[in-house]
Amino acid sequence: MRRLTIFARYPALAVFLQTWRLELTVFLAGMVSVRGLPPYHEQIVMIVGLAVLIRSLTLVTWKRGARLGFLFGLGHHLLGFSWLLTSLNQHGGIWMGFAVLILALLAATMAIYSAVFGGLLRHLAPRPGLLPLAAPSLWVVSEWLRSTLFSGFPWNLVGYGWSDQIYILQMADLGGVFLLSWFMVFPAAMLALIWIRGFHRGTMMGGGGLVLGVVLVAVGYGAWRIDVLSPGQDAVVAPPLKVGLVQGNVAQVHKWDPKYREVGLTQYVQLSGAMNESVDLVLWPETAIAFFLQASPEAQKRIVVLSQKLGAPVLTGVPVADKDEHGQWLYYNSVLLLDETGTMARRYDKHHLVPFGEFVPFRSVMPTFIKKLTYGTEDFSRGLGPIPLPWERGAIGVLVCYETIFPQEVAQLGRASARWLVNVTNDAWFGELAKPQHLAMAQMRGVENRLPMIRVANTGISAAFDQMGHELGRIAPNVAGSLVIKVPPGEGHSFFQKTEPWWIGLWLYMCLTAWLLGIMHRGQNY
What we know:
Layout (H helix, E strand, L loop, with lengths): L5 H4 L1 H9 L1 H12 L10 H15 L4 H19 L3 H8 L4 H29 L6 H18 L17 H4 L2 H26 L3 H29 L11 E7 L4 H4 L5 H13 L7 E3 L13 H14 L3 E10 L5 E10 L8 E3 L46 E5 L6 H9 L4 E6 L8 H16 L3 E5 L4 E4 L5 E5 L5 E7 L7 H5 L3 H18 L6
Parallel strand pairs: 1-2, 2-3, 6-7, 7-8
Antiparallel strand pairs: 1-11, 3-4, 4-5, 8-9, 9-10
Helix pairs in contact: 3-4, 3-5, 4-10, 5-7, 6-7, 7-8, 8-10, 8-18, 10-11, 10-16, 13-14
């Protein structure tokens, strides 16, 4: 007797797979496309995954398209944000099952934006020929919304997939990471168009030629910009900044334990003192000093002595407490520039705080059992905004932790005459996948604003980039060490920096153009 297939044994499974085949395909495409992001940088995988989504959207109604877009985003973010499980389970003490549920809720929330893409694309591109115009622009609009609404969370925008391609990366000084996202989705839309029309020689040559032309323009622009920005042999340039990066690699479980306060501070002082060459600036990461320095004259003295020995100020993350006009204590996640004078006047307070990490949104109406994931019971207060920290060698655009993932806010620092971008962070909270992802975002901010980016992290990856995105040196993750890097100054201005608020208008205009063309040529099959 012939053995029954699994579908014959379970007819309901066969019906489910037949009905939801497209949904499952798109969900898997979203998961696979994560391979296009750092640290993998398999751009062709990302492009194919996006092409599967775009092709599928042409087969369905707008309602089902919204569902497909949601499922693509859900699969994409479940893997792309998987590092969050370390934060929730290991450091937040949340049961793994509940941590997975929280991850799924975050992924589902972020997938709403790709659902908007899925629901609207059919309206903007009722004919396949409009896909190369509509799809990339609409995708960028959805990413801009994700970056802006409800505090924003622009982690893993698809444009970061180009961060290892130094020539294409230079396009960021024109349109930021959003322009690079357009460059990722455009070939995917062309591939979907070729797929629809059939893989004929003429179609493939036409579509492939257009994609190749766009890529060559991007590469040509990048090569030209690097040539222009690279100083010639006879050029007179400002001296580089000699920066000492210090990575303490203090375990997160010990970082805030009062018993280890002295150990953590000693680690950073010793690593800094061991640098065997002169420096202009020493960088310690976010909350490297994990206690209130204001209340410890002895710790202040140790840093003053260190600054005198090195002949350079120490820029360090530290919590700060102030009283408001009503006598209430306010707490800040701050960065201080400390020198041999002992003054703590030069200070930056983080303004873009992490919901549920540094404060509980709507705390007054939230159930009391909902608490921050980080150490301490009190919420941090917001700083005044992206304001450069004054310094003799040029104002420093300080970015604490994930403030560096917001292109709009970093551009504000550039417009406010910051000469150096410095990202202090503590990625020990997260899984290992977050470290290269976060590093790529910092690199992108430097290129967008044509400013050097200097980054120091508690457990890594600490590194520095010049204004073109070239890596100047790094300290490997999960090791303690120090490194002196010569960082050349940057131009400090770019087209993107000047025009950043207006780019969303261009993307919306392109979407509107596709929609109007669709109306004007209704009934034509092109």
